[in-house]
Design a protein that fits this description.
single chain; 3-stranded antiparallel beta sheet; 8-stranded mixed beta sheet; TIM Barrel; 283 residues; alpha/beta
Length: 283
């Protein structure tokens, strides 16, 4: 994740990351403390906002997914590729069209790679993809919903497209979300087939009430939809013995009991929810 491309990504729910370009424009509250914008600025690249140029890459960069595909073929397995961690494939700008065309070609050339296209702009998908009634089997389409408002706006648009896997990223999870109207096992050919949830990382991050994450998990369990808990983020429920030195925030759990979150940092907070990891994936 620390760069424009990563084989063996540190993101828990993918094997590799690939970016056809860098840069984006903020569109909703989830974008407020965008890690990708922060990372780009850290390395001296100013590519955020409507007026700024995007950053594009060399031929060598574009050959990497072909190598990943060959490796997967040799190992007789599949690999997930998150596209794009530093951009949004469906940002509607004419200067991105030729790079999108290159991406569609690359997806077609890599049948052993499952391409995870995650967007905050599902309303643009139909105009920008070359597929209509039949989509490639190796394309998974997802959208971000940080609150109920954005779930209600984005999920109906996501359902318009017949991707083999449709998924939700509730990260950063900023409020209670009811997903029940959209959840459905893959065997039905309908709805959301996979849900990722997690808290926000970074020193300015907003804490996530554990009740919100547990509710999403329980909804997925009831609907037999795989659930992946990515992380607590910067705020976690365990003090790790440092209670006196840590900043805290108070929430109320689902039984109305008071509880605290501690400002631990992403790595110390970990990703255990009710004592275990949740690593669900669609089959």
């Amino acid at each position: 994740m620390r760069g424009y491309m990563a084989k063996n990504s540190t993101i828990e729910w993918t094997h590799h990351t690939f970016n056809p370009w860098w840069g984006c424009t903020k569109v909703s509250p989830a974008c407020k403390y965008c890690y990708a914008e922060s990372w780009a600025k850290r390395v001296g690249v100013d590519v955020w906002g409507k007026e700024n140029d995007r950053r594009f890459f060399s031929e060598k960069h574009w050959l990497e997914p072909l190598k990943w595909n060959q490796e997967a073929e040799r190992e007789r397995g599949r690999r997930r590729v998150f596209c794009a961690s530093m951009a949004d494939v469906f940002e509607e700008r004419p200067d991105l069209d030729r790079w999108r065309e290159r991406l569609w070609e690359t997806i077609g050339q890599t049948p052993q790679l499952d391409w995870l296209l995650l967007t905050k702009r599902p309303q643009h998908v139909g105009r920008l993809v070359p597929w209509r009634a039949v989509w490639p089997a190796n394309v998974w389409l997802g959208t971000t919903a940080e609150t109920q408002r954005w779930a209600d706006i984005r999920f109906p648009r996501l359902m318009e497209y017949p991707a083999r896997v449709r998924f939700a990223s509730c990260e950063p999870l900023l409020g209670q979300i009811d997903l029940q109207a959209w959840l459905a096992p893959m065997s039905t050919g309908r709805g959301l087939n996979w849900v990722i949830a997690g808290g926000e990382s970074g020193s300015k991050s907003r804490p996530m009430n554990p009740a919100w994450a547990k509710s999403v998990r329980d909804q997925c369990s009831a609907a037999e939809v795989p659930f992946h808990f990515k992380q607590w983020g910067h705020w976690g429920p365990q003090s790790n013995g440092m209670t006196q030195r840590l900043q805290t925030v108070r929430f109320v759990d689902r039984q109305g009991r008071p509880m605290k979150l501690f400002k631990l940092g992403k790595h110390a907070s970990g990703r255990l929810l009710d004592g275990r990891t949740w690593d669900g994936f669609p089959l």
